[in-house]
Amino acid sequence: MIYTVTLNPSIDFIVEVDDFQLDQLNRIDRESKFPGGKGINVSRVLNTIDVPSKALGFLGGFTGEFIQNTLESEGILTDFVKVSEDSRINIKLKTGEETEINGQGPALAEKNVQDLFKKLDTLQEGDILVLAGSIPPSLPKTFYSDLTREYSKRGVKVVVDAGGKVLAEVLQDKPFLVKPNHHELSELFGATIKTVEEVIPYGKKVVEMGAENVIVSMAGDGALLFTNGEVYSATVPKGKVLNSVGAGDSLVAGFIGTYSKEQDFIKAFQVAVATGSATAFSQDLATREKIDSLLDQVTVKKVSFN
């Protein structure tokens, strides 16, 4: 079973204003609302490719009810911890350019955290645990590394999708998969990484630091997979980018969903890149039809590790 953890879910409120004016009354031209959060995005895309998962995390208030009801209406299993304050709303204002205004989210009590631990204790060897997104201020900064260390020892494959210090700290606990983009890789090593060739030595270092598998996404320049002592590159399909939200989460879902069914890293990588691209080329998360239409455009080949 695949379990996703979203510590600070949201309603993503997408607002489109064709002619936005500061200090004026603006009227929304188009709007939409989706359940948000990186782990939730992973569960939604897994559902799209017919791979079951269970979404865990913290939800509260009327916003939390919207998130849970929407996920359940899509057929996604949920087992969230209920908290006393409202889950957050993140505003994505699109007016030629895109501006994001993210809410802080609810404070978490110690009992909330213990309730989550009880739910996680049901995980068994061979399960996949996805830890994705930011860690709320009310939790220790070592939260992901603590979980990765504990559940990796139990034979659970832990996937961590986070950047900055969280990524740096979690590597020593031997996650099954991490997915930094080239900007996060640059931040991790204090380097300037712009090309695929420049990624390779740093991706190798991430493996040496403890990650079993590493995917480095390079936006329009493709992606690299480091696995089993080899490096593979993937081309990305051509298309117009419509959506900056969820492409990386979709890539993670495509990879772990395909791997869980076929145990094939290369096929999983191909599907991952097609899935991430399908979301980038859509208004919401990827559809199965969009993924299938892009799959043949993704070419995976082995490259030198030196």
Question: What structural keywords apply?
Answer:
306 residues, alpha/beta, 11-stranded mixed beta sheet, 4-stranded mixed beta sheet, globular
Can you walk through the features of this model?
The protein is 37% helix and 24% strand. Strand 12 and strand 13 form a beta hairpin. The chain has 10 helices and 15 strands. It has helices spanning 38-48, 61-73, 110-120, 143-153, 164-170, 182-189, 196-208, 247-262, 265-280, 288-295; strands at residues 2-6, 10-16, 30-36, 53-59, 77-78, 81-82, 88-95, 97-101, 128-132, 157-161, 177-178, 213-217, 223-227, 230-234, 300-303. Strands 1, 4, 5, 6, 9, 10, 11, 12, 13, 14 and 15 form an 11-stranded mixed beta sheet that branches. A 4-stranded mixed beta sheet has the order 3-2-7-8.
Care to give the gist of this entry?
This protein has ten helices and 15 strands.
Q: Helices, strands, pairings?
A:
Elements: E1 2-6, E2 10-16, E3 30-36, H1 38-48, E4 53-59, H2 61-73, E5 77-78, E6 81-82, E7 88-95, E8 97-101, H3 110-120, E9 128-132, H4 143-153, E10 157-161, H5 164-170, E11 177-178, H6 182-189, H7 196-208, E12 213-217, E13 223-227, E14 230-234, H8 247-262, H9 265-280, H10 288-295, E15 300-303
Helix pairs in contact: 1-8, 8-9, 9-10
